[in-house]
Amino acid sequence: MKLRTNQQERSERRWGLFFIAPWIIGFLAFNIAPMIASLGFTFTNYNPANPDKTQFIGLTQWIRAFTEDPETYPAILKTLVFSAICLPITFGTALAVAMVLNSKRLLGKSLFQTLFFLPTMIPTIAAALIWTGILNSQTGWVNVFIEKLTGFHAVGSDGIPWTTSPYLIYFTYSLVSLWGMGNTMIIFLAGLQNISVELYEAADIDGAGWWAQLRRITLPMLSPVIFFNLVIALIGLLQYFAVPFTLNQGRGLGFPDGASNFLAVDFYAQSFAFANMGYGAVLAWVIFLFGLAFSLLLFWSQKKWVYYGGEK
Amino acid sequence: MMETTRTTYSVKKANRLKTAGITAAVIACLGLFLMPLGYGIATALKSPDQAASSEFRVLPLSPAQVQHNGEKWDLYKVPMADGSVKTLAMVQKGRQMSTFADPANLDTPPIEWKGNWRTLTPELQLDPQWSNFVTSWQAIDFVNLLKNTLLYAGVSTFGILLSSSFVAYGFARFRFPGKNLAFVLVLATMILPNMITLIPTYTFFFSIGWVGSWLPLLVPAFFANGFNIFLLRQFFMGIPRELDEAAKIDGAGPLRTLYQVILPQAVPALVAAGLFNFFYCWNDYFLPLIYLAGHPALYPISVGLSAFSTQYVIYPYLVQSASILASLLPIIIFFFTRRFFMEGVVLAGVDK
Question: Can you tell me the ipTM of this complex?
Answer without folding.
Answer: 0.90
